Amino acid sequence: MLDKKLKERSVHRAKIIKGQLEGLVKAIEEETYCVDLITQSRAIQLSLKSLDRMLLENHLRGHVRHMIGDVRQENKAIKELIGLYALSNR
User: Is 44 within 8 Å of 20 (Cβ atoms)?
Assistant: First the structure.
């Protein structure tokens, strides 16, 4: 479950990203200069990384904290975190 404040921030961030992506699509359709397109694309990627950090923080503070306290779920929490780490290093 998302922390209420974090949920609001995450939804806000996702809406900003949606607007950025819509702007990029429009810019591509209008054949905007390639460097400008790449700059917009990189900005979107950085925004997504920021959103990832917020969601990871929520997961660590909530779910993982409780999972580590339960011996039966501890391995699951560790596997999830290793999976996220591997995914972020691709």
Answer: yes
